[in-house]
């Protein structure tokens, strides 16, 4: 019996604690404190730590800048950082800590789609905005039932958008009329890109003459490539990952398939150059979020500021996305005129034509940013800025 | 000229299957064991060649020979440590040991160097030759040439040398061979050495031809080579060669017909059909010559 009493006592304390927590949140939301607390929930250790660390540098740079310029409506931004160890359970725990103990206005993070999805339920329950800088899977903001996660937003474009960009690039910049698609049948990423490429390319008046697929971990692609070659495409879209793409390009060039090839950020690894060889990679293109070689004035200003702060290192796409995320959030908080999460959420969803480093951003009804992408060309094994493609 | 190109693609792929299949078939012929670790010896061969080329700066042929020698020794070690103590055990015990050995080698290599893939350095000149509209890379011709040369050497060893005669004798009747004064243990070890050496050569050739090597690369080619060995008639050396080449060409044709996702399935459908309709393989029972 004693035990039972203890349990009831404990349960009631917990309930009281939660209730108190809610109350406190409301009062802090309405009250006039001089600092805006923003949680940062990133992969600072674990297997994708390089993403988290890069984002952190961009976030720090943007926060320092905003605070140095008088903050948001006179209020300074205070970052509260938590390491989620590249693990989705830890990411959820971090979100619980940030929302209950620290009572942050919004959370920036996580770097990957999976670790962001892990926070979606908590975001909804506690009505706290979660903004991922680099989660590119469509499932982050739109649940399986097709319902939009009201409090979850992202700064990066979604995966299939890269297929759209590649199709526009092929049709308008390279002016090709027919294309082949060679996708990884085991990857949603690859299939999503292939589908959006086909849709956009055909809408632009092109025709897809050959659609083939491979299975991940394959090593011999010659037979399928020979089949593709016999259809005489002027352009081949391969939305895969670098391990297979490297071999595909090498074997395609050996078979004399010398048309331009294009892929997406899945190609972006030094291993690609090792596998395919620098020669075979000539006349291939990839889409990416941003390039530090982009001559755009806003980008060059950012590159200079970033180099000053980071010992001359040129910012990568993650640095830029981290930087932009803070500005995207700051813009919404400013327009909301308060730290009330529901108002911030509404303003974020209304974002239109906000000029950021990674492009001019508008948020659509599925919380997917509409923004430009960069096309890079491989020249002798090096990525060179080629052009910017608007949506 | 698409079809000519596809046949050439298939023969290049098939010659690698054939080299691995030879090792399967020789070991099966002599001790009736399906050596599942064989595909992993192939992987070890690829890595030995890789480190010989990048670490010691060896050329293609020295690396190929070094890899064959190390794999031959490795094969004998596997046989002596894992299979010899089980020579009189049930066949299923030996088979399970072979599977265990396979996993041990795969994950041993991952433990030592990690699971990330490695890109083979370009050690062979590669130009493309145009024959009747088909593009043949000089590399694939070269590789085909080496495979054929190795198979001819193997035929010579099996039919013209004393150890070859001993191998054929042991495969016909182990006890009778022992009574005739043949050292059965050494003969079995020699079989493992030759089979593993061929797998090592296949590993280096695979690395040069396909560029990417990784610790689990032996699994699928190993299984395909097993299918090739059964297709030709397991235990029969010419059967393994023909089976390997045939399987390579069949896979290319399946992909060429637009069923590239069914390519791997096709190999195993062939295995099932062969086991149902002609369990002794193409080269049949009557003309059987075991090694």
UniProtKB/TrEMBL annotation, chain A:
PROSITE patterns named in the record: PROKAR_LIPOPROTEIN (PS51257)
Domain of life: Bacteria
UniProt keyword terms in alphabetical order: Amino-acid transport, Signal, Transport
Domain Leucine-binding protein: 35-381
Alphabetical list of Pfam families matching this protein: Peripla_BP_6
GO BP annotations listed: amino acid transport
SUPFAM superfamilies referenced in this protein's UniProt entry, alphabetically: Periplasmic binding protein-like I
Signal sequence extent: none
Keyword DNA-binding: no
InterPro entries linked: BCAA_transport, Leu-bd, Leu_Ile_Val-bd, Peripla_BP_I
Family, per entry: Belongs to the leucine-binding protein family.
Protein name per Swiss-Prot or TrEMBL: Leucine-, isoleucine-, valine-, threonine-, and alanine-binding protein
Species assigned in the record: Pseudoneobacillus rhizosphaerae
Record lineage: Bacteria, Bacillati, Bacillota, Bacilli, Bacillales
UniProtKB/TrEMBL annotation, chain B:
Subcellular location field: Cell membrane
GO cellular component terms, semicolon-separated: plasma membrane
Membrane topology: Multi-pass membrane protein
Regions that span the bilayer: 6-26, 59-78, 90-112, 132-158, 188-210, 225-249, 261-278
UniProt keyword terms in alphabetical order: Amino-acid transport, Cell inner membrane, Cell membrane, Membrane, Transmembrane, Transmembrane helix, Transport
Entry keyword Ligase: no
Example of a GO biological process term: L-isoleucine import across plasma membrane
Alphabetical list of InterPro entries matching this protein: ABC_transp_permease (IPR001851), BCAA_transport_permease (IPR052157)
Listed Pfam families: BPD_transp_2
GO MF term set: L-isoleucine transmembrane transporter activity; L-leucine transmembrane transporter activity; L-phenylalanine transmembrane transporter activity; L-valine transmembrane transporter activity
PANTHER family: BRANCHED-CHAIN AMINO ACID TRANSPORT SYSTEM PERMEASE PROTEIN LIVH (PTHR11795), HIGH-AFFINITY BRANCHED-CHAIN AMINO ACID TRANSPORT SYSTEM PERMEASE PROTEIN LIVH (PTHR11795:SF371)
Family of this protein: Belongs to the binding-protein-dependent transport system permease family. LivHM subfamily.
Protein name per UniProt: High-affinity branched-chain amino acid transport system permease protein LivH
Organism: Pseudoneobacillus rhizosphaerae
């Amino acid at each position: 019996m004693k035990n039972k009493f203890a349990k009831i006592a404990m349960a009631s304390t917990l309930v009281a604690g939660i209730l108190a927590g809610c109350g406190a949140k409301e009062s802090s939301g309405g009250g006039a404190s001089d600092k805006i607390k923003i949680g940062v929930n990133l992969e600072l250790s674990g297997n994708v730590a390089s993403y988290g660390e890069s984002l952190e540098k961009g976030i720090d740079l943007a926060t320092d800048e905003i605070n140095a310029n008088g903050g948001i409506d006179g209020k300074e931004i205070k970052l509260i950082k938590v390491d989620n160890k590249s693990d989705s359970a830890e990411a959820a725990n971090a979100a619980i800590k940030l929302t209950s103990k620290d009572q942050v206005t919004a959370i920036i993070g996580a770097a990957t789609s999976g670790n962001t999805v892990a926070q979606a339920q908590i975001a909804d329950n506690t009505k706290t905005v979660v903004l991922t800088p680099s989660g590119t899977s469509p499932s982050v903001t739109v649940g399986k039932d097709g319902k939009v996660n009201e409090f979850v937003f992202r700064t990066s474009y979604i995966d299939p958008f890269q297929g759209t960009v590649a199709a526009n690039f092929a049709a308008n910049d390279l002016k090709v009329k027919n294309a082949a698609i060679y996708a990884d049948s085991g990857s949603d990423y690859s299939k999503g890109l292939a589908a959006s490429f086909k849709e956009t390319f055909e809408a632009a008046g092109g025709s897809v003459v050959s659609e083939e697929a491979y299975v991940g971990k394959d090593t011999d692609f010659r037979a399928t490539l020979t089949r593709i070659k016999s259809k005489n495409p002027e352009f081949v879209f391969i939305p895969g990952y670098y391990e297979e793409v490297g071999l595909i390009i090498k074997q395609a060039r050996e078979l004399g398939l010398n048309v331009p090839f294009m892929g997406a950020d899945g190609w972006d690894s030094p291993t690609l150059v090792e596998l395919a060889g620098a020669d075979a990679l000539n006349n291939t293109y990839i889409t990416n979020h941003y390039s530090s070689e982009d001559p755009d004035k806003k980008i060059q200003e950012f590159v200079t500021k970033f180099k000053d702060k980071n010992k001359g290192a040129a910012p990568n796409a993650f640095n830029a996305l981290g930087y932009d995320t803070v500005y995207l959030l700051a813009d919404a908080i400013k327009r909301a005129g308060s730290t009330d999460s529901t108002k911030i959420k509404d303003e974020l969803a209304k974002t239109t034509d906000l000029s950021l480093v990674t492009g001019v951003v508008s948020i659509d009804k599925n919380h997917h940013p509409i923004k430009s992408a960069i096309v890079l060309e491989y020249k002798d094994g090096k990525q060179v800025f080629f052009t910017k493609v608007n949506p | 000229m698409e079809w000519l190109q596809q046949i050439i693609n298939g023969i290049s792929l098939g010659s690698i299957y054939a080299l691995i299949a030879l090792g399967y078939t020789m070991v099966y012929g002599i001790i009736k064991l399906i050596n599942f670790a064989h595909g992993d010896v192939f992987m070890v061969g690829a890595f030995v060649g890789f480190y010989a080329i990048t670490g010691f700066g060896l050329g293609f042929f020295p690396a190929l020979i070094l890899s064959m020698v190390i794999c031959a020794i490795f094969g004998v070690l596997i046989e002596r440590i894992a299979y010899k103590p089980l020579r009189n055990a049930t066949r299923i015990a030996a088979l399970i040991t072979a599977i265990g050995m396979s996993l041990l080698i795969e994950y041993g290599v991952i433990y030592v160097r990690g699971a990330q893939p490695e890109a083979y350095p370009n050690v062979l000149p590669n130009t493309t030759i145009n024959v009747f509209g088909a593009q043949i890379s000089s590399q694939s011709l070269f590789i085909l040439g080496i495979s054929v040369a190795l198979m001819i050497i193997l035929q010579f060893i099996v039919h013209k040398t004393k150890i070859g005669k001993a191998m054929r004798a042991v495969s016909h009747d182990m006890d009778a061979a022992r009574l005739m004064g043949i050292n059965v243990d050494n003969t079995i070890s020699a079989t493992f050495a030759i089979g593993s050496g061929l797998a090592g050569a296949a590993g280096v050739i695979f690395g040069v031809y396909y560029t990417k090597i990784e610790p689990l690369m032996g699994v699928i080619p190993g299984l395909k080579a097993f299918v090739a060995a059964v297709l030709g008639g397991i235990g029969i050396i010419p059967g393994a060669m023909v089976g390997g080449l045939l399987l390579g060409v069949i896979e290319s044709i399946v992909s060429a017909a637009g069923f590239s996702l069914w390519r791997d399935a096709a190999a195993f459908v062939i295995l099932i059909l062969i086991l149902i309709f002609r369990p002794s393989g193409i080269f049949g029972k009557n003309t059987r010559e075991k090694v």
